Amino acid sequence: ISGNPWINSKFKLRGYKAKKHFHKVEDVWNWGWSKNLGTVLPKKLCSAVSQEKKENPSKRFIVHYMQPHAPYLNLQNLKWESYWESHKQKNSEKKPRLPHKKINSWIWWKIVDLLGMERTSKIREVLNLPPLTLVTRALRKVGKDGLRKSYIENLETCLKSIANCNELNSENKEVIVTSDHGELLGEGKMWGHGFQKRLELVKVPWLEVHNTKVQVRSKNL
Fold first, then answer.
1. Pairing of strands 174-177, 203-210
2. Domain-embedded: residue 220
3. 98 lies in which domain range?
4. How far apart are CA 134 and CA 70, in angstroms?
5. Exposed, middle or buried, 207 (CB in 10 Å: 0-12/13-18/19+)?
6. Which of left, alpha, beta for 15 (phi over 0: left; psi -120 to 50: alpha)?
7. pLDDT tens column, 102-152
8. How many domains does the chain have?
9. Cα of 101 vs its chain's centroid, Å
10. Which helix (H) or strand (E) holds 192?
11. H or E element in which residue 80 lies
């Protein structure tokens, strides 16, 4: 049950076709996307879980929330939709990216490797260029402390939704809360994810809930 376009049943991404690996992929991102917020709200995922539980009562579910991933719900005035809508469109298109765009992107990410995301973001701001990522867009607007606060609030919103989703919290249910990657919030002057293999990105929380008993530990990806 996916709120993230990267896991979908409609098209292949980086050689991966999700529907080949699962009984079913419910594309919540396709019907539950908020154009104003540029994301899928947690309640949409909970609604999908409820429906899928009725249709497939014997199945186990992986529910892929967008949060705490940017866009940040408390920064709605940043008009995130332009970023994710173009991202969705780009990934659904079969046309390859133009060579000069690939080269331009490659150069900037090499600069990130050399100088860090923080310095690169400042250089792009001085040059009046748009932020490279959703995270650096928030960094440019609200600063380091504001971005960290927004990330935490996104995480809390997601966890509250999981706790309040009856289908995930009925008796005799085992729920595991984890993540597909970590997030850099200033470590090594880097922000976001998708960079070199850093411990902060590959060591993720692993929360097990057995009825009312909770176990917390971490796992390496």
1. antiparallel
2. no
3. 18-170
4. 6
5. middle
6. left
7. 788 889 989 998 898 889 999 999 999 989 888 998 999 899 999 999 999
8. 1
9. 24
10. strand 191-192
11. none
